[in-house]
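Pinned message: reference record for ATP-binding cassette domain-containing protein
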Amino acid sequence: MIEAVGLTKSYGDKTAVYQLSFQVRPGVVTGFLGPNGSGKSTTMRMTVGLDEPTAGTVTVNGLPYRRLPNAARQVGALLDAKAVHGGRSAREHLLCLAQLSGVPSSRVDEVIDVVGLGEVAHKRSKGFSLGMGQRLGIAGALLGDPPVLLFDEPVNGLDPEGILWIRNLMKQLASEGRTVLVSSHLMSEMALTADHLIVIGRGQLLADMSVKDFIAHNSQGYARVRVPEDRPDDPEKLRTALARAGGQLLPEEDGGFRVTGLALPQISDLAHEADVRLWELSPHHASLEEAYMQMTQGAVDYRATVDTRSSLQPLPQGMPGQGHAPQGHAPQGHGYPAGPGHPAPGAQGYPQQGYAPQPMPQQPGTGYGTPAPGGHPPQQQPWPGGAPGTQPYAAPTPGAPTSDSEAAR
Ligand SMILES: Nc1ncnc2c1ncn2[C@@H]1O[C@H](COP(=O)(O)OP(=O)(O)OP(=O)(O)O)[C@@H](O)[C@H]1O
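Predicted structure (C-alpha cells):
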C-alpha cells in the first residue's frame, strides 16, 4: 500500500503538491489523474525517494522509500522512460539495474520477453522509438518483482497493440495482489484500466473514489429522444409535457433532443399522453472523460485557445532565407494569445476561493536523491486490505497552490 499524509512539495515559490492525503490499495489498478502540472509526477517522485517532501509523508507499506529494506525489490517505477544510458543495450541497462538491486541476471531475460523487446535486446537504446523506450522502462519496473508499482504515463508512445498490452498488464499485476498506481491523460484508456481513481488539481486532492462513483458524481445522465420530422409541432408538445413533470428538453445538433430530469419510462409515458411519437428513446451514459472534464475544468493551468488559428498573427513575409525582400510587414507582436478563448486559470467550475494566493510555508527544493539499491527482500506478504477513511471529495483548502500563471505574476 502507498499512503500519503499531508504531502506537500514546494519548489521555491511554486507549490507543486499541497497537503495531499490518499491511500493506494493493493489488488486494484488506481488511476492517478490531473491536468498538466497538477503534481502527479512530483507525487510519484516523492513516493520513490527522488524528491523530499517539504511537509507530510508518503510511505510504501508503512515506510518512506529511503528506509525500505531492499527498496528496489519492493517498489518498481516507470517515471521517465528516457532516463536510460543511450549507449547501453536494453539488456545491458537491465543487467546494471539487476546488479544494483541484487536481482539474478536470469530475471533480465524474463522481463525482456515479457515486454516484447527480445529482438532488440542487444541494440543500443538510443535508437529506440518512444514506445520501445516505454517498454524498456516497464521492464525496469518489473525487474525486482515488486509488490508495489508506479507507472507515470506508461502508454505514451505505444501503438494500439502496446496500449492493449499495458492495459492487460496493469490488470494482471493488480489481480496478483499488487499495488498499482498509474497516471495517464487518456481518459478512455483509464476508464478501461482503472478500478479506482485519485484525481488531483493544482497539487490538491479533488477525488478519491471508484471510477463508477466518479462518473456518477461528476456527470449528469440524460436521455436522447427523436421525434418524426414530419410532425413539426411535436417538439413543442413534448417540451410542454416534460416541463410539467419537471423535465427539460434541449435540442441537439443532429436534430434529436436531450432530456434531463426524468427517467426513461416517465419520458415514454408523458410522450404517449401528449400524443407524441418517439422514434428514439435511449439512455446516455456519461464517459469518464466527460466527468473528468467537468471536475477539473477549473483546475487547468494550460489551455489552448478555442480557435487557435484565429489568434495567430500572420508571419511577416521576406523572413531571412525566404529569398525575397521584406514587403513592409512588421510583426504585429503581442504575446501569447489571450482573450475570450483563453480563460483565466480556474475560470469555470472549480471554486475560486481555494486558489487565492496565500502565504504558505516554503522550503527550497531539495534536489534529487537516488533510490537506494538493495538486495533480496523477504517474500511477498499478503497485504492488509480495505483502507479506511477514503475521502470522496476534498474541498480546496484556503492557502492552496496557485496556478503556474498566477505564480509567474
Ligand atoms: N524540479 C522542479 N523545479 C521547479 N518546479 C517544478 C519541478 N518539478 C515540477 N515542478 C513544477 O511543479 C508542478 C507540478 O509538476 P508535475 O510534473 O508534478 O505535474 P504533472 O501533473 O506530472 O504534469 P504533467 O501531466 O504535465 O506531466 C508544475 O508546475 C511544475 O512546473
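Pinned by admin. Summary line: The radius of gyration is 26 Å.
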